[in-house]
Amino acid sequence: MDSEKRDELISNFIDVTSASLEVAIQYIEMCGGDVDQAICLYLESGPESRGPEMSNPKYQEPQVPSPVAAFDDRLYDFDLPAAPVVPTLPPHISRNIAILEPPGNNKDVQKSMFKIPSDILFHGDFEQAKDFGTENNKFLLLNIQNYFEFTSHTLDRDIWSNEPIQTFIRDYFVFLQREVSSPEGQQICSFYPEFENFPVVAIIHPKTGILMHKFTHPLTLVSVLDTIEQFIGRYPQVSFNAKRLHTENFGKEQQQQQ
Questions:
Q1: Shortest CA distance to 12 belongs to which of 32, 30, 38, 31?
Q2: CB burial string 54-71: b at 16+ within 10 A, e below
Q3: 30, 105, 121, 192: least buried by Cβ within 10 Å?
């Protein structure tokens, strides 16, 4: 994609969502350059879900007439019984209830909890990620998300934000994350029939594109960390231009250890 077209997509995203430049780049890359899909994903998956007009600072909220002042009117000739007195809750109960109320800035808190791990993401397409991995002797760690599945959000919150996992990724992998409904996400899934239950986490040989390992569900912090450690233990140092890796037994050995 040329820079002029990329700038146009970013500008369109920001005009609709009022998001920052960094967020615009993340979502457009996540959706493989499909700005419409990126906007929908931002509005639907983020807590700041609102219509495009409400996201646009140019949008003027319509004037709502003031409410009619309250008044008393009697429809009967007899007095109605007085309403029962509602007892006041003790102070300690009131405080407990207040804790359960959502904070005023709950949208920002929730968005930060499920933040896309931009600091470890590779900013490029699938082929560029494979080329980068081959040149730098790193495996491709691929994550295909489905943001209608809550597990995809917990991956961002609990696993990709984990410091030991981030360290492993920086040292041994090229990390690429795509949304399954994006054009590139659909194309990648067409290469690998094994990708059925989303979200998918897999390790790809960067030079050949061979699926070396597909992580099994449930995707927990412990299971993902154990699998990464076992894989790195098998291939601590690799050179994709110097030798051929024999990986067909990795999955079998892992099942035997379990």
A1: 38
A2: ebeeeeeeeeeeeeeeee
A3: 105
For residue 24, the number of C-alpha atoms closer than 13 Å in the C-beta half-sphere is 17
In contact, 180 and 198? CB cutoff 8 Å: yes
Give DSSP secondary structure letters for 140-191.
EEEEEE-TTSHHHHHIIIIITT-HHHHHHHHHHEEEEEEETTSHHHHHHHHH
Distance of CA 112 to the CA centre of its chain: 11
Q: Which amino acid is at 120?
A: I
- 137 φ/ψ angles, rounded to the nearest 5 degrees: 55, 50
- Nearest Cα residue to 252 out of 201, 218, 217, 213: 213
Instruction: State how far the Cα of 38 lies from the Cα of 25, in Å rounded to an integer.
Output: 10
- How far lies 102's CA from each of 2, 107, 137, 175, in Å? 44, 9, 47, 34
Give the global pTM.
0.57
Q: How far does the chain reach from its first CA to its final CA, in angstroms?
A: 45
Measured distance CA(48)–CA(250) in Å, rounded = 42
C-alpha distances out from residue 47 to 79, 114, 147, 252, Å: 50, 9, 12, 41
Per-residue pLDDT, averaged over 200-229, amounts to 96
Which of 250, 247, 240 minimizes the C-alpha distance to 133?
240
Two tokens at 181? 């409904």
pLDDT digits (tens, 9 = 90+) for 68-96: 666 555 554 545 555 554 444 344 333 33
Q: Whole-angstrom Cα distance, residue 204 to residue 207?
A: 9
Neighbours of 87 (CB within 10 A): 6
Q: Would you state the structure tokens that stand for residue 93, as one six-digit string?
A: 């109960």
